[in-house]
Design goal:
Helix 1 crosses helix 8 and helix 3 packs parallel to helix 4. The chain is an alpha/beta fold. It starts with 11 loop residues before the first strand and ends with a helix. A hairpin with a 2-residue loop joins strand 3 and strand 4. The protein has a single domain, classed as Rossmann fold (3-Layer(aba) Sandwich). The longest helix has 16 residues.
Length: 254
């Protein structure tokens, strides 16, 4: 397969895509938490929301500022921690409006989010991928100089099955797999502390064996995270277990 040339990485030191292949496993929330973890460590961070038809990153951070452009490109808005964000929802006059585009337009939007935005001097850019292995994901993997792909899964067997497809796609396109995170692994009762496997027994061990990937860890199903994300306050989220896992996973990579 002959691949198109990669875009210039500009002044971005590391670029990681976060994806799954499957929807509903928490890719966007994990992307946001990775950015928060890196920003809290003093890194210059950006998030590119490549989910053009179902963007959610601005909501998590409470962002509604319309990006402005100049001769040098599009200036992305910043979060309270200084994280630069670009997303289709920041370009719509009504975030509830659907983006009804065919593949080529989706691919063009993804390309422009990387090439036309003034990311400037970043330590790391996280790219939140949409579900599946379609045009937007293909464009990211083919045209953006990724340093790695982080897979997000959940305990169900069906999730690991679909995740394998995304991993194989990355392998086909020579994008290194930097690790796997299992999200929503269990719920801890706030009253008794009992661990409840809401989605059943984890199938991640067999997934790790098949992929030969580094396992970053299992993140709990935390209702407070969903609540804070809905309120646009994900930067204020505190969970030592979660941030320890993410910080250790990022250690040495950014």
């Amino acid at each position: 397969m002959t691949l198109p040339p990669k875009s210039d990485r500009k002044q971005i030191r590391k670029i990681f895509a976060v994806g799954s292949g499957k929807g509903g496993v928490g890719k966007s929330s994990l992307t946001s938490l990775l950015a928060v973890a890196a920003a809290r460590e003093g890194k210059k961070v950006g998030i590119m929301d490549a989910d053009i038809t179902g963007p959610s990153i601005p909501t998590f951070f409470g962002l509604s500022t319309f990006p402005f452009g100049n001769a040098e490109g599009i200036e992305p808005p910043k979060t309270k921690l200084g994280i630069k964000v670009i997303s289709m929802n920041l370009l719509l006059d009504d975030p509830a409006k659907p983006v009804v585009w065919r593949g080529p337009l989706l691919g063009n939007a993804v390309t422009q989010f990387f090439t036309d935005v003034r990311w400037d001097d970043l330590d790391v850019l996280f790219i939140d991928l949409p579900p599946g292995t379609g045009d937007a994901v293909l464009t990211v993997m083919q045209t953006i100089p990724l340093d790695g792909f982080l897979l997000v899964t959940s305990p169900q067997e069906i999730a690991s099955l679909v995740v394998r497809k995304a991993a194989k796609m990355a392998e086909m396109l020579s994008v290194p797999l930097v690790g796997v995170v299992e999200n929503m692994s269990a719920f801890f009762c706030p009253d008794c502390g009992k661990r409840v496997e809401v989605f059943g027994k984890s199938h991640s061990p067999s997934l790790m064996e098949d992929l030969g990937a580094s396992f970053w860890g299992s993140l709990p199903l935390d209702p407070s995270l969903a609540e804070m994300a809905d309120e646009g306050k994900i930067e204020a989220y505190e969970n030592k277990e979660v941030f320890d896992i993410l910080s250790q996973g990022l250690q040495g990579r950014i």
